Amino acid sequence: IEFAPSAQGGAVTGALVQDSHGVGVAIAADGVSVFSSRLQRNGQLGLAGSARLDAGVLAGPLVAFNAIALNNTAHFRSADGAAGGLKAFHSGMAACFNTVSGNRGVGLWADGDSRRVIFAGNTAVDNEADGVRFEISRFGLIHSNDLKRNGLKVDPFDRPAGCRLSCGGAI
Fold first, then answer.
1. For the whole model, what pTM was predicted?
2. For residue 56, pLDDT beyond 60
3. What are the DSSP calls for 27-77, one per residue?
């Protein structure tokens, strides 16, 4: 499922998104929500999303109450490839109350130069790389996430952790 930049809002609710070759749900539009869905066994990522800021107001995707599991069946590298559960690009995603588990890669990832990404109330368990990664980004909120048994099997170039922060400031 893809929401292109020209889309204005939209929602995925109660869906089963599985076995896609690349990303299960790709969001490049403002005001998109993904609720109570199962994103599993996708080739690269369960979900990838980005948005823009309108006069400083967050217009990004809201991803909540989903199960994001067993993604990266195509075996992309977890160290520097976009692989695993959920990846936020640039700005504005709020990912809350999701269960992110068993992914071959990072569970929840805010990629380089992301801003105003929120990871709150999620459970990240048994992901091969970090449960949460906030990479060279700023103005994020990481709060009340339950991280268990992450980073146990990774690419030899990666440095696994339950939660890894390499920030540009204000986390």
1. 0.89
2. no
3. E-SEEEEEES-EEES-SSEEEEE-B-EETTEE---EEES-EEES--TT---
